[in-house]
Amino acid sequence: MVATHTTRATVPPDAAGPRAGHPGRRGLSPRLPRLFPRLSPQAEGLLALLVTVAIWAAFALSARALSASSLLPADAALLRFGVPLVVLFPALWRRRRRIAAVRPGAAAKIICGAGVPFFLAAMHGGALTSAAFVGSIVPGMVPLFVSAIMIRRGHGVPRGTQTAGLALIAAGVAALVWRYVVPVDTDVLAGSGILLVASGLWALYTVGLREVDLDPVGSIGLLCLPSFAVIAILVLTGVLPTGIAHAAGSDIALFLVVQGLGVGLCAGLLYAFAIRRLGAERSSVVGSLSPVAVVLLAVPLLGETPTLAVLVGVPLITAGVVLANRRPRPEVPADA
User: Fold this and answer.
1) Are 167 and 320 contacting, i.e. CB atoms less than 8 angstroms apart?
2) pLDDT at residue 31 above 60?
3) How many Cβ atoms sit within 10 Å of the Cβ of residue 190?
C-alpha cells in the first residue's frame, strides 16, 4: 500500500506513531541490525523501501489475478493470515501478553480494517475491475478517509499542500471511473465502490495502529491471529467455499509467497525498517510510486493495457499522495 500520513490537520505526524497504513517506529529498538553491512544506512533503507513497494504492487496484481486462478478468495485469505502466524510463532508467543492487553476498540479497528473484511473487499473489487484500480483506489483514497476520521475527532482540517493533495486524489479517482459512468458499466462501478470500502477499512486500520503500543511483529500477530480464526471458521462452516484441496500447486505457491510471506510478513517489517533508516516523510514519497509500479507491471504480467483514464488518473493520485504526505511548514510568529 501507498504510505500516507496526516499532520497537524489530523494527527501530529511523529507523536501519532507510524504513518498511515503501515507499522512505523513504535516499539522498534533504537539500534537496528544491519541488513547489508556493505551498504550505507540510507542505501539499506532505500533498498528495503523499494522491495516494500514491489510487494504492495504484487498485492494489487494478485487481487486481479485471483479471479483467473484455481484458488478462491477464502483460500488466499488462509494463506495471507496463516503463513505469518507460522513463521512468527515464537516471537508472537513472547509478545502474547502485550497483544492480549490491547484495548478492544483499537484491536477491532486493526482486525476489521486490514483483516478479513478488507481482504475480501480488495479481492472482490479487483476481480471486477483491474490491477490499476486496486493499486490506485485502495491506497490512494486512504488520506481522504483518514482526514475525514480525524476531522470528525476534532483535529482540524488539512492545510496548504495537503488540501491540494487530497483534491488531486479525488480528481484522480474520478478520472479513473468517469468513462464507466456513461455508458454505465455496472461491474466496474460496483468493483470501484467495493475498493472504496476497502480503502475506508484500511484507513480505519491506520487509525487503530496509532492507538496500540506494539512493535511491527506484535501488530502482525494482533491482525493475523483473529483474522485466520475467522476465515477458518467461515470455511469450516461452509459460509465461504474453498478449493485449496484441488488448486494448482503453482497457484498455491504464488499466493503463499505474495500474500503470506510478502504482504503478510515482509512488507510491514521492511517498511518499518525503511522508516528508521530514511525517515517517514522520505519513505512515504517513494512509497507513493506504488500505483505507477502496479500499472507498469500489469502490462507484461496480466496483459492489461492502460486506458486513457488510467494514464490520467494514476499520475493524479500519485501526485496527490505525495502532496498529502508533505508536512506543513511551522507557523512563524509575527514578532519573530
Assistant:
1) yes
2) no
3) 14
Comparing C-alpha atoms, which of 317, 283, 315 is closest to residue 5?
Answer: 283
Which of these, 200, 234, 198, lies nearest to 72 by C-alpha position? Answer: 234
**Residues in Cβ contact with 100 at an 8 Å cutoff, skipping those fewer than 6 apart:** none
Residue 94: pLDDT above 90?
A: yes
Q: Provide the whole-model pTM.
A: 0.80
Query: Rounded distance, CA 198 to CA 177, Å?
Result: 16
Question: Do residues 2 and 22 lie in contact, with contact meaning Cβ atoms separated by under 8 Å?
Answer: no
Q: How many other C-beta atoms can be found within 10 angstroms of the C-beta atom of residue 50?
A: 16
Name residue, grid cell 500474500.
259
Q: Which of 199, 192, 195, 201 is nearest to 115 (CA)?
A: 201
Residue 204 CA to residue 111 CA, distance in Å, equals 10
Q: What is the pLDDT of residues 117-130, one digit of tens each?
A: 999 999 999 999 98
Distance of alpha carbon 136 from alpha carbon 7, whole angstroms: 22
Evaluated on CA atoms 328, 173, 254, 242, the torsion sign reads: positive
Average pLDDT for 228-257:
94
What Cα–Cα distance (Å) separates residue 75 from each residue in 18, 25, 141, 171, 236? 30, 32, 27, 35, 12
pLDDT tens for 143-175 read 888 888 888 877 777 778 888 888 999 999 999
Distance (Å) of CA 17 to CA 81, 137, 180, 214, 217? 24, 24, 39, 10, 15
Say whether pLDDT at 336 is over 50.
Answer: no
Angle at 53 between CA 51 and CA 58, to 5 degrees: 95
Cell 502466524, residue located: 85
The four Cα atoms 107, 111, 112, 118 give a dihedral, to 10 degrees, of: 150
Please spell the DSSP secondary structure of 104-171, one letter per residue: HHHHHHHHHHHSHHHHHHHHHHHHHS-HHHHHHHHHHTHHHHHHHHHHHTT-----THHHHHHHHHHH
- pLDDT, one tens digit per residue, over 96-109 is 999 999 999 999 99
